[in-house]
Amino acid sequence: MIRPIPTLSVLAGVLAAGLMGLPAGAQTPAVYPDGRGGEVHFPLGDISFADEVVSFTPGDPASGPDESIPEEVLGPPDYVDTVDDNYLTLGCGGVLELRFTDNALVDVDGPDLFIFEIGPAVEATELAISGDGEFWVELGRISGAVAAVDLAGHVDVADSFSLVRLTDLRETCHGQWPGADIDAVGAIGAGRRVVLDSSVLFDVDHSDLRPEAEAVLAELAADIARYGNARLLVEGHTDDTGSDAYNQQLSVERASSVGEFLIQHAGLPAMAVEIVGYGESRPTVPNDSDENRTRNRRVEVVIVAY
Length: 306
Ligand SMILES: [Ca+2]
Ligand SMILES: [Ca+2]
Ligand SMILES: [Ca+2]
What we know:
alpha+beta; CATH 3.30.1330.60; five-stranded mixed sheet; 5 helices; binds calcium ion
């Protein structure tokens, strides 16, 4: 279920396309009906929404098979009326875990996470978010008419999150649709996530940029400059070879090299760039082959426009 990381050549192609007149950063704000007569604005448009189902544990009782397909929650809201099946019924106590891949959930001014729930009222659902799948930040519950959640007070400005977990709180356990009915999950507070392959950026065990890296990063910097006001999270990651402490240090130094280059070339003030080293703590895939370790050695840049 894990989407392959774009290779740098693909990325370079995307960035080149960005320079040829596409909207800056492929960022197209859009407004979506909230299902209750109102609208919700998403600065990143369609990429704002959840991209992958990590797991789904139906509740007990569960709903019928047509309402128990977790992939119906992915992408923008598409529920039209009660006869379509474009939503997931969690079932009583059901648990759904979702991943953002092309975007990252961050704290911006105002609400950051929006749950598109269908039906007459938002049924009580507990929300949690995570960056690594192990440490979860509990955001509390949504219920009544409230479907938006603000991360402020729960997270740090340098944090980004890729995982969201919804747990039905067993308040509606009867009828055809037991538990919460979810159409879509979107990040209002979001940044575009760009993944850079460390083997292109750096020589083994080094943190100074290779000449080949500078050409790619210059294109990324030009792309970022088109946003106008933006802040960046630059996140370094390693594989699991070597000690935790060594990998932590290497990941910080590599993220710093990328961050300093982008500050110089994207015209951003230094305070707009947060450097974070995650060491080996957030692998994209299990560190069980050379190929997977290569994928885990990366620097991710989250671009948050404001
Ligand atoms: Ca997405
Ligand atoms: Ca917020
Ligand atoms: Ca849907």
